[in-house]
Specification:
homodimer, Aminopeptidase, about 160 residues, alpha+beta, six-stranded mixed beta sheet
Chain lengths: ~160, ~160
């Protein structure tokens, strides 16, 4: 998919699940969110390569060393009236940063969005992660400050579901 | 799907696209976002009922009058390692509010999330829309204040894609 000066980026295969889980764990550590990490080999395999896949993944290697990954899925915008692309994760291992790996991963995902005629690409970033926000803004991304994300999970979700 | 005291909620069919577009326009007016509305009959039909549907829709009728709709799609959480459900829109016409229509729509979507083993349900709300935030919080939803949504669209998206 991309091969330049030691960098190889390709679509993930089932054989990459172990690597992706390792990298997700590293990302969770960086984000101080390991207490929210419940992904397993089985659940990730089901989500990416099961009967009804819900996301797609890219893996990056630098000089044959696993360097990072991106996971994305299709969203939809009713105002645009068409699909969008949601970037769930993009991650480059700390000791391999500054080599353009993140930029290339980001560009490839944008290219997939354009090729599939998605109206936009969206993702979320932790508000304290200013280096990431700067990186995204440098590429023309805009923060949606007026919107608040809400989440329903666990017992509250079950309870609401039971009322239907 | 749900029929109680004059309220009928069912899955949308291609014949509902015109109605859904009318309601999306009303929602855009309420949100002061009509300048961002580009959905058409064709694009909505493609998104909901095309070769590769990206979202699903429910429509609500109250005493045979079109009353509201919900549109949702599957997201994925890498930390949970499984699918989630993203509620793109939920809307009830102003003169039909206060009858439990929104609550029932919301519960049905939560039930779909639980039945499909989604780890969570997420959506976005305008920060100035306090009545909506109160409604969601009353049902156990939590605001993700620490996260910022970023969006890349138009020429910035095309430019980044070309660099891949």
């Amino acid at each position: 998919m991309s091969e330049q000066s030691g960098l190889l980026i390709r679509e993930a295969t089932p054989g990459d699940i172990g690597l992706i889980l390792t990298l997700i764990k590293e990302l969770a550590e960086y984000e101080k969110l390991t207490h929210t990490l419940f992904a397993t080999q089985e659940s990730m395999n089901e989500a990416l390569f099961g009967e009804r896949p819900v996301a797609e993944a890219l893996v990056a290697y630098y000089d044959d060393e696993p360097a990072g990954y991106a996971i994305y899925f299709h969203s939809m915008s009713t105002f645009l009236g068409r699909a969008g692309l949601y970037l769930e994760d993009i991650y480059v291992r700390p000791h391999l940063r500054g080599k353009g790996i993140g930029k290339t991963l980001f560009s490839i995902v944008a290219n997939i969005a354009v090729e599939r005629k998605c109206g936009r690409m969206e993702w979320q970033v932790l508000r304290w992660n200013q280096p990431a926000i700067d990186f995204y803004e440098a590429h023309g991304a805009e923060p949606l400050d007026g919107w608040l994300t809400m989440r329903l999970t666990g017992e509250s979700l079950s309870k609401l579901a039971k009322n239907s």
